[in-house]
Amino acid sequence: MLRRVFRPDKFTGLHMIGVMALFFGTIISVNLTLAIFASTSWSGLVVENSYIASQHFNELTAERTAQAGRGWTATTAYSDGVFRVDLRDAGARPLRGALVAATIGRPATERDDRTLRLAPLRAGGYGVTTDLAPGIWEAEVRVDATGEKPWQSAIRFVVK
Questions:
Q1: Where are its TM segments located (predicted)?
Q2: pTM for this one?
Q3: How far apart are CA 144 and CA 48, in angstroms?
Q4: Quick one: which H or E segment has residue 144?
Q5: How far is Cα 120 from Cα 128, in angstroms, rounded to an integer?
Q6: Is 2.40.10.10 the CATH number for 72-159?
C-alpha cells in the first residue's frame, strides 16, 4: 500500500489530502500548544475588572497626590536574611511608632507573594526576617501612622 502511495509517477487526490492534513494538522497542533502555554502562565492582570477599576481612577489619583504631598520616602534593603524598610518624613527624619506591612513578590508571578509585618529595628527603620531568593522583587509597603491616612509605596529591589 505505501509503495503504491509514494510511487513517483503521478500526484493524485490522495496525495493532496495527505498534504492538506499535514499542513492543517501542523497549524492546529502549534495553536493548541501556544494556547495551553498561555492559559497556564501568568495572566498579566493587575485588576480583575478594569471597567470597575476605571470608575475609581480619579479617587485613586487624588489619594496618590495627597500621599506625594506628605513628602514621605521609603527605601528597602535585604541582607543577611532581613528585609528592611527605612521610612523618612518630609524633613528626612525617621518615622517612628507606625505599623508597617509589606507585600513582597516577584513582578511577573504570584507564586512567591507573601505579606509581612515589619517590626521596629534598634538601628532604625523597620524589618523582618524572611528568605528571599536572588533576583528582582517588588514590595508594596503600607504604613499606618497614628492620626494619618495609610500611606503606600511600591518599590522594586534586587536580591543578589
A1: 12-38
A2: 0.68
A3: 26
A4: strand 135-144
A5: 9
A6: no
